[in-house]
Design a protein that fits this description.
The protein is mainly β. The chain is built from no helices and eight strands.
Length: 83
């Protein structure tokens, strides 16, 4: 028998169309999305929501990231800001 414990690790991962940005969600922080700048190899943004993040997806031809939390709205991030 293996050890049982809370889930850990990356739950979701998504790349921007140009591979410049990578978005991740960690199982231990279900309300946060981490956006990584892969050209600089650094964390670009941490997007913290009131509800657990259900899904996220980069637009097919831009660096805009759309985030769903199960609420009747969609949240958006881009290198210029978030709303």
């Amino acid at each position: 028998m293996g050890l049982q414990g809370p889930p850990t690790g990356i739950k979701l991962i998504e790349w921007s169309y140009d591979s410049r940005y990578m978005a991740t969600k960690c199982e231990t922080m279900p309300n946060a999305v981490f956006v990584w700048d892969m050209a600089k190899l650094e964390l670009s943004a941490v997007l913290i929501h009131l509800n657990p993040v259900k899904s996220f997806k980069f637009a097919p031809h831009s660096q805009q990231l759309y985030i769903g939390t199960g609420q009747p709205r969609v949240f958006m991030w881009s290198p210029k800001g978030a709303c």
